[in-house]
C-alpha cells in the first residue's frame, strides 16, 4: 500500500477522487435504463398492449433499437464534441461543458412521455457519456505518475460499478410503484451531475501541447510536490516535454492505420470487441429483463447483488470465468426449454446464479482493464452492433450462453497469442518506445526495462 500512496500528495489524491466520483454518472445512465425497462410502469408508458396476454410489452426489436441507437450519441460525444473541446480548451473545460449539457439532457429523459421522446432522450443523454469518456481517462492518465497510471484509469470501471450499485438500490425500492414514479425517480438521479471542475488544475500535458510551459511546469509541480525532491520533479517534467516533442504524429485520424500505430489500433479494436461480444451487452442491458422472464426471484434484487461483486493473466482468467458461466447458463437454458415442452417448469435459479458469476468475472478483468489498455473511441461501432444484434430483451433465454460462451473461449486463445501486450509496471513513454522497436506483442513481458 505504501508503494501506491507515496505517489499521491493531497492535491493529486483529491483531484483523482473528484474525477472518480464524477464517473458514477455512467453507471447511473447504463443501469438506470437497464433497470427501468424491466418495470411494469415503464412498459405501460412506452410499450404496446398485447390483447392475448392482456399486458403491456416492449417488443424485442424496439428494445434492440433502444439499447443500440444511444451509442450513436455516444460516438458523437466521444469522437467529435468531447475530443474537440478537450483538445482545444482543455480537460477541465470539457468536464465543465459536459456537466452543463447533462442538466438539459437529463431533463428531457425525466419528462419523456412517448416512445419517440424516450428514445431521443437516451441518445442525447449518451452524448454526455461519450464526452465523459473522451475526457476522464485521459485527464487521469496525464496527471498521475507512471507507476500508478493503470490503477487510476482502471477506477473508471470501479466507478461504473459503484454508480450501478446506487441506481440498482433505488430501482429496487421504486420498482413496485404502479405509476411513472417507478422509473422517473431513478431517472431523476441524472440531474445530480454537478462537476466541481473549478477545483481541478489544468493538465500539465495539455498545457505543453499549447506551448504554455510556465503554466505546465507550475501545474506539474503542484501534482508532485511532497512526493519527490524538487530536482526529480523538474527532471520528470523535462522528460515528459521531450517525449511530447519527439512524437512524430500530428493528431490526425489517418495516423491510426500507419506504421506501428496499426498494431495498436488492432489491439484496441480486439480488446473492445471481445469485451462486448463475450456477453457484457446481454448482462448489462438485458440482464434484468432476462431474470424477470424466469419468474423466479425479484429481478431488481439480483441486479443489486451483481453490482456488489465486484494484464494479461487477469484477462485470461476473466475470460475463463465468463465462458464457464455462459456455457453452464446455456445448458440450463436448454434444459428449461426441454422441460417446458414436456409441460414441466424449471426453477431458473441456476441461470440467475450464472449471471451473477459472469458479472463477477467481467468486473474483475475485462471491465476495468479494457480502459487501461485501450481507448474506447474505436469501440463505439462495436457497441452499436453488439447491442443491436444482442438477444432482444433476453428473449433467447439462457441458451444465449452457448453463443457468448463460444466467443469467450475464442477470445481466450486469441488474447494469449495475438492481442494483449503485457505492460505491467511500464509507463506510456516506455510502451511507446517498445512499439517503435517492433517488439512482438507476446514478447513484451520479457523485453528489457529501460532499454534504449
UniProtKB/TrEMBL annotation:
Transmembrane segments: 71-90, 313-332, 352-374
Signal peptide: 1-27
Protein keywords: Membrane, Signal, Sugar transport, Transmembrane, Transmembrane helix, Transport
Membrane topology (UniProt): Multi-pass membrane protein
GO (cellular component) term, any one: membrane
Recorded superkingdom: Eukaryota
Location (main, coarse): membrane
Compartments (UniProt record): Membrane
Protein name listed in UniProt: Sugar transporter
Amino acid at each position: 500500500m505504501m508503494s501506491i500512496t507515496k505517489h499521491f500528495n493531497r492535491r493529486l489524491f483529491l483531484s483523482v477522487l473528484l474525477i472518480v466520483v464524477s464517473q458514477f454518472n455512467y453507471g447511473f445512465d447504463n443501469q438506470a435504463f437497464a433497470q427501468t425497462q424491466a418495470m411494469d410502469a415503464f412498459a405501460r408508458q412506452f410499450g404496446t398492449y398485447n390483447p392475448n396476454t392482456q399486458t403491456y410489452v416492449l417488443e424485442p426489436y424496439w428494445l434492440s433499437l433502444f439499447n443500440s441507437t444511444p451509442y450513436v450519441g455516444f460516438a458523437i460525444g466521444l469522437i467529435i464534441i468531447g475530443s474537440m473541446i478537450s483538445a482545444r480548451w482543455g480537460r477541465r473545460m470539457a468536464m465543465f461543458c459536459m456537466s452543463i449539457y447533462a442538466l438539459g439532457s437529463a431533463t428531457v429523459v425525466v419528462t419523456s412521455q412517448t416512445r419517440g421522446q424516450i428514445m431521443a432522450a437516451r441518445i442525447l443523454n449518451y452524448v454526455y457519456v461519450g464526452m465523459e469518456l473522451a475526457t476522464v481517462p485521459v485527464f487521469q492518465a496525464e496527471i498521475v505518475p507512471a507507476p500508478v497510471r493503470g490503477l487510476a484509469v482502471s477506477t473508471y470501471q470501479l466507478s461504473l460499478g459503484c454508480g450501478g450499485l446506487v441506481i440498482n438500490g433505488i430501482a429496487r425500492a421504486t420498482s413496485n410503484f404502479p405509476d411513472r414514479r417507478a422509473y422517473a425517480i431513478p431517472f431523476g438521479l441524472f440531474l445530480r451531475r454537478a462537476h466541481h471542475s473549478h477545483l481541478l488544475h489544468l493538465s500539465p500535458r495539455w498545457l505543453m501541447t499549447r506551448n504554455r510551459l510556465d503554466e505546465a511546469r507550475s501545474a506539474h509541480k503542484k501534482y508532485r510536490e511532497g512526493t519527490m525532491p524538487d530536482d526529480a520533479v523538474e527532471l520528470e517534467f523535462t522528460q515528459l516535454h521531450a517525449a511530447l516533442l519527439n512524437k512524430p504524429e500530428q493528431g490526425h485520424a489517418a495516423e491510426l492505420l500507419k506504421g506501428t500505430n496499426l498494431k495498436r489500433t488492432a489491439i484496441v479494436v480486439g480488446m473492445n470487441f471481445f469485451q462486448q461480444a463475450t456477453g457484457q451487452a446481454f448482462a448489462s442491458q438485458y440482464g434484468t429483463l432476462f431474470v424477470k422472464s424466469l419468474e423466479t426471484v425479484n429481478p431488481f434484487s439480483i441486479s443489486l447483488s451483481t453490482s456488489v461483486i465486484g494484464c494479461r493473466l487477469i484477462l485470461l482468467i476473466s475470460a475463463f470465468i465468463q465462458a464457464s458461466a455462459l456455457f453452464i447458463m446455456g445448458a440450463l437454458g436448454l434444459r428449461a426449454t426441454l422441460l417446458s415442452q414436456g409441460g414441466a417448469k424449471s426453477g431458473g435459479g441456476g441461470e440467475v446464479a450464472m449471471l451473477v458469476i459472469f458479472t463477477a468475472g467481467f468486473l474483475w478483468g475485462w471491465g476495468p482493464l479494457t480502459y487501461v489498455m485501450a481507448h474506447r473511441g474505436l469501440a463505439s461501432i462495436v457497441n452499436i452492433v453488439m447491442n443491436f444484434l444482442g438477444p432482444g430483451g433476453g428473449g433467447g433465454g439462457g441458451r444465449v450462453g452457448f453463443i457468448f460462451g463460444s466467443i469467450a473461449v475464442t477470445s481466450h486463445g486469441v488474447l494469449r497469442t495475438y492481442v494483449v501486450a503485457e505492460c505491467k509496471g511500464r509507463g506510456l513513454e516506455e510502451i511507446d518506445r517498445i512499439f517503435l522497436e517492433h517488439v512482438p506483442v507476446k514478447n513484451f513481458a520479457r523485453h528489457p526495462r529501460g532499454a534504449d
